Amino acid sequence: MKEPLLYLCHRIPYPPNKGDKITTFNILKFLNRYYDVYVGCFIDDPHDKQYKDKVKELCKDCFFVDLNPLMAKVKGLTAFGKGEPITLPYYYNTKMLNWVNTIIPRHHITKAFIYSGCMAQYVLTPETEGIRKVMQFADIDSDKWRQYAEASNVFMRSVYMREYRTLSDYEKLVADKFSISCFISDTEADMFREMVTADIQPKVQTLSNGIDSDYFSPSASSILSEDFELEHENYIVFTGAMDYRPNIETVNWFTEYIWPKVIEQCPDSKFYIVGSSPPKQVLDLMNTPGVVVTGRVDDVRPYLLYSKAAVAPMKMARGIQNKILEAMAMERPVMTTSLGVEGIDDYPSNDLFVTDSNLEMTKWIIEKLSEASNSASDSRKWLEDNFSWEAKLNPLLGYLGANSD
Fold it and tell me: For residue 386, what pLDDT is reported?
């Protein structure tokens, strides 16, 4: 019989088709091998309700709470009267709290793994004292709000700076109360250590992302379910959830400042923006010659497989970009910025091009679109050697107080 473990995450950990869900799904698979896992999570997209049984297969018991994003935003406004970050009331739910407080004594749970700082509020209660708690912040979420503030108008800048300050204070509180606080890269962990007091610093550790290189492989079977003629098109691709502000900012900037110069030299080429829930400002980019916005796709791999290159010129970013790892696994050349490459160290520079220069970006993309498709096999080999999920997640067992062997 395996030891029980509480696992809370802010979105259902399936399907593994976007950044945080790729991580939470693979962590769930990993933990299921060693623990009887009790999962509590929110479902913020009705489309994901069909995947409840997929999660149930990987845990002892699970509890799902529907989250209406519009109502959650209204709840988030109550934070202004409480002096707390909007993120907390946004994700607060009495049913979730009651389930946590019931499941812990019922199954004698003494260990908890929490993904995303907003879920820590459910185990910062008297009922959960004495439990060994491991937090996966992934990245310093508060710093994203600082970046948003710098890129916003005067009114929104004040709102975002407030969220930055209150969330930063909350992150420090969580790190103080938890046994271990994890970040997705050494860079993020080092930055957070500078934010906290000396007694907390030893509890700050790295728990990095991996990549499923069997699934993301040019030789794996994948089906293009949408009506695009990818095999016959000359294109580059950006992948990611398109309701995520850093992705929105990136494709808007790229389409305005880089793509027009590319299309002048390569008039028959295309720029595919592949990802779910694109807002109007992203959909409007299709008015630009050569830009294709797909919306949700069944399988992102064909879009990578037939591309000349993947681009991730991130203007806002924290942590490791899964989109880069996936493209490397699919043997695609990748162009990104210094922000985008954070946490990816000692990479093969011949097929992962890093620049913050508009001119260099434009030149590199034109070269890729003008040449025959190039297989970035060195990138894939490097990825297999350095980013397996097993190797990346093995330290988690020690953080939870178990032997890693």
Answer: 86
Decide yes or no: CATH 3.40.50.2000 for domain 230-385: yes
Structure confidence by residue, pLDDT tens digits, 233-242: 999 999 998 9
Whether pLDDT at 405 is above 80: no
- Sorted by sequence, the CB contacts under 8 Å of residue 128 that are 6+ apart come out as 100, 101, 104, 112, 122
Residue 269, pLDDT above cutoff 80:
yes
Cα gap 169→224, rounded to integer Å: 46
Q: How far is CA 91 from CA 168, 279, 385, in A?
A: 17, 22, 38
CA atoms of 259 and 271, how far apart (whole Å)? 8
- Whole-model pTM: value is 0.80
Residues spanned by CATH 3.40.50.2000 within the chain? 3-210+388-399, 230-385
pLDDT in tens, 361-385: 999 999 999 999 989 999 999 988 8
Report percent pLDDT > 70 for the chain: 99
Class of domain 3-210+388-399: alpha beta
Report the 3 state secondary structure along the chain. CCEEEEEEECCCCCCCCCHHHHHHHHHHHHHHCCEEEEEEEEECCHHHHHHHHHHHCCCCEEEEEECCHHHHHHHHCCHHHHCCCCHHHHCCCHHHHHHHHHHHHHCCCCEEEEECHHHHHHHCCHHHCCCEEEEEEECCHHHHHHHHHHCCCHHHHHHHHHHHHHHHHHHHHHHHHCCEEEECCHHHHHHHHHHCCCCCHHHEEECCCCCCCCCCCCCCCCCCCCCCCHHHCCEEEEECCCCCHHHHHHHHHHHHHCHHHHHHHCCCCEEEEECCCCCHHHHHHHHCCCEEEEECCCCCHHHHHCCCEEEECCCCCCCCCHHHHHHHHCCCCEEECCCCCCCCCCCCCCCEEECCCHHHHHHHHHHHHHCCCCCCHHHHHHHHHHCCHHHHHCHHHHHCCCCCC
